[in-house]
Structure formats: C-alpha cells, structure tokens
Write a structure and sequence with these properties.
Number of strands: 19
Strand content: 15-25%
Shape: globular
Oligomer: single chain
Length: 463
C-alpha cells in the first residue's frame, strides 16, 4: 500500500520544495481548495500534496520524489476528466496547468504545445496563421487528456483523430527519464500514447500537424423532438455519403436560454451541430438535405472563425457543474436503437444531453493496429451526459445516463472512447482497446512495469 502524501515528513517536503521552480500546495494552504477544484464538481478528492510544475525539470523532480516516497500519483492538466482522474485522495498530484507554452511553425505546418494548454489556447495561436489541428468541441478542454485518449472533434471526418495528427511527444517516464516518442524514436511508446491514455508517462510536450482551417460554416439546427425517428433515420443514411468536408454531430437536448429565441427556451429538441470546411455548394447541399428531412424548429448556421465554433458551448458548460458520463462506439443506428433514443429523449435537466460524434471519414483510413485506438470501423462515438449545477440532482442525472446507456449498449460496438468513461473497471477498458489491449500491456510492462502511473483508465502491465 502506498504511503499517504498528507502524512509526509515536513523536512522531506521542504527539501523537495526548495528544488522546484513551481510550488507545492498542501491541505492547510489557503489556495488548496482552489487547486483541487476540477471541471466536474461531482468529484471531491483531497490530495496530500499538489505540485504545480513550472517546467520539465519540476515534472522530473515530482516523479522521482513520488517514487522515492511511495506516493500514489495523479497527473492533472486541463482538469476535464469525467471521473476526476487528475486527482487522487491523500496522494501527490502533478499539476501541469502552469506549463502553457505554444510554438507555431507556419512553414512546417506544425505546432508544439505544452501540457497545461487548453484547446482554446492552441486554436488562438494557430488561427493567426489560418491553421488548426483536430481537437474537441469545448475549447476549455485540456490538450493532454483529449490527445492521450485519442481525440475527436469538428475536424475529424476531414483530418482524422487528434492522435492521427500527433507527430511526436516528449515524455517523463516512471523512472524520471525524459524521452522523445515518434515514428522514429521509441516507436512502441509512440504507438501506445496514441489512444492509450496516461498509462505510460507524463507527456510534457506534444507536436501536432496543422491543416489549413480558417473560416468555417457552423452552428446548430434544431428539429422538434417529435421528428427524432425521422431525422435519425435520415442521418444514418446521409452521413456515410456526405463529403468529408462536412461535419455534423447529432444531438438530443433541451434548448437553453440566450442566445436562443425565448419561445424555444426549455423545449426538448433533436438536431445537428454543424462545422463545414468545404465549398459553398457542398455546404448548401448538406444543409438543404437536413431541411428536407424535416422542417427545422430553429437554425443558426453561418460563416465564422473556426475558434468561434470550438468555443460555442463554453458558456453553456462552465466549470463547476455536476457531470456523469457514459459512452459507447456505434457502428449502425438500427431501428431498435432509434426506438431507445426516443424512449429516453426527455432529458432530466436542461444541460443533460446525448451526442453522436462522427468518427468515420479520415478515421477509417488508418488501420486498427496503427495506433492504440483500435475501433477504426465505427461510425460514431456516442456520449450520454447527465449535467446539472445542483448537487441535489446527482442521482437523477446519473440514473438517466445509466438507464439510457444500458438500454442502448446491446446496439453498440461495445467499447467506448476512454474520455467518455467514468471509473467502470477493467472489462470496459479492455473492450475499448479490443485486439490492441495485450499489446498495450506489453508496452506498459516495458515503460512502467510497477504500474506507477495507475490513477487513470488503467492498463495493467503484462506479467
């Protein structure tokens, strides 16, 4: 059993603190509660120590110190982990949020990003050059967690997963060594980092390929919830044939307040969230096809800078709400599955929702064994999220998400994008990696044989 960091010797901690450029935060410090606050307010963990790193040297020192003292370790970057795996009770948190350097090379079409950045930080830096890489759908999401889980978002049908655009990573291993992982260096580690989560080390720098993305056509289109069956059947037929420049995820939600018209507030709807990169002809054809499927209740789709689409949900989902996630990969939207969506289409709270994120197009151009993310033939990554600001509604949103997921699970591929999982156990993790799971265990045994990095969606090292 690991030693608890909260009971660590004062002299030992002070000696460690003196060697850092960053700071050490303890439970008695006035900033402790702010430092342990993460995006999901349903999570309430109390670390023994939080090391807010200023540079790579601090990360190396923190890893070595935690290993010497036998502390449980969690790695925190953006703090968006649904199950709160960026924190650990009584252990040591290596907090990367202060490491926010970004360097864009517009000639090489690459960007190097430190792990404390959010995708909003990256989009702001790259947009100045008319460039972007694949990220998520909320700009406050941290770069590290999204990337290591695989990463999908508005640019996925055109440019693949985030990991398909990762060129290299600098990693602090469990023994404190700093190594580079790429197609030419530590290739097995690079393979595992691309979807294998935080199991293999602390990534202190990511290098991504950039693509020409500037102005896009994006925004929401809502239909009355009574049109769910009709529009979901249309969507399952339309999406696989749509140009890769056209992206639209399907949603079930309740219309929030501003900026939507007052007469729509509180209405249950189904709909699409668009992000189109292609020609005006392609975009107009896609939008008209959706309008022809059923008459929209509301539509606000227009030309805008790509970062504006990325940040569109930031205000609706600020830090501090209660969250409960359930996810699965979906290959086909069968009639039976659509009937389940209809049954659960009345969301329990205004922020609760279901999204079907497309992971077809360019994602299918990569073979299942090329990266740790193995489900290269699914069409959607589905997430069901119960969300509310009031802790009194925790059970309500959790029950809805679980019941909805259990009813749909027989109609899915079986595994899930690990960033859409709570702490669901070894079998779920194994199902999510499929045939790549044993290979991941082998890489884990090579780079972290003692399972030092285990506060994550954990892959145990092979014997």
């Amino acid at each position: 059993m690991a030693t608890t960091a909260k009971d660590a010797d004062e002299t030992t901690i002070e000696r460690f603190r003196e060697g850092l450029r960053g700071t050490v935060i303890r439970p008695d410090d006035p900033e402790f509660d702010d430092a342990r606050t993460i995006y999901n307010a349903m999570i309430d963990k109390r670390p023994g120590l939080i090391v807010r790193c200023a540079n790579v040297g601090d990360v190396i020192a923190a890893v070595k110190f935690a290993r010497e003292q036998d502390f449980d370790v969690a790695i925190r970057s953006g703090g968006h982990s649904g199950p709160g795996l960026g924190l650990v009770d009584d252990g040591l948190v290596i907090d990367l949020s202060g490491m926010t350097g970004i360097h864009v090379d517009p000639d090489a079409n690459t960007v190097r990003v430190e792990p404390g950045c959010t995708w909003g930080d990256v989009d702001s830096a790259t947009h100045a050059f008319g460039l972007a890489t694949v990220s998520g759908v909320i700009s406050t999401t941290g770069v590290s967690g999204l990337t290591l889980g695989g990463g999908h978002g508005y640019l996925t049908r055109k440019y693949g997963l985030t990991i398909d655009n990762l060129l290299s990573a600098d990693v602090v291993l469990a023994d404190g060594r700093l190594v580079r992982a790429s197609e030419d260096e530590n290739e097995d580690l690079f393979w595992a980092l691309r979807g294998g989560g935080g199991n293999f080390g602390v990534v202190v720098s990511f290098e991504y390929e950039l693509h020409p993305v500037d102005t896009v056509v994006g925004g929401p289109l809502f239909w009355p919830i009574s049109e769910l069956e009709t529009t979901m059947r249309w969507y399952r037929e339309w999406l696989p044939q749509a140009p890769e420049d056209v992206y639209a995820f399907y949603l079930i939600a309740e219309v929030p307040g501003e900026p939507f018209p007052e007469e729509l507030h509180g209405q249950n709807v189904c709909g699409l969230m668009w992000c189109c990169l292609g020609s005006e002809t392609e975009t107009d054809a896609a939008l008209q096809s959706a309008r022809d499927a059923a008459e929209p209740l509301f539509e606000h789709v227009e030309s805008m800078p790509y970062p504006a689409v990325q940040g569109m949900f930031d205000g609706l989902y600020p830090p501090g709400d209660q969250w409960y996630w359930k996810g699965d990969y979906v290959r086909e939207l069968t009639d039976d599955a659509i009937a389940v969506h209809e049954r659960f289409s009345e969301v329990p709270t205004p922020k609760s929702t279901m999204h079907l994120y497309p992971i077809d197009g360019a994602v299918h151009d990569v073979s299942p064994d090329e990266t740790a993310w193995s489900v290269r033939d699914a069409t959607w990554s589905m997430v069901i999220v119960g969300v509310d600001a009031d802790p009194a509604n925790d059970k309500k949103i959790t029950k809805w998400a679980r019941d909805y997921w259990h009813a749909l699970h027989p109609h899915t591929v079986g595994g899930s994008y690990i960033n859409f999982m709570m702490e669901e156990g070894k079998n779920r993790i194994q199902a999510s990696y499929g045939d790549n799971y044993e290979r991941l265990r082998g890489v884990k045994a090579k780079y972290d044989p003692d399972n030092f990095f285990h506060v994550n969606q954990n892959i145990e090292p092979a014997n």
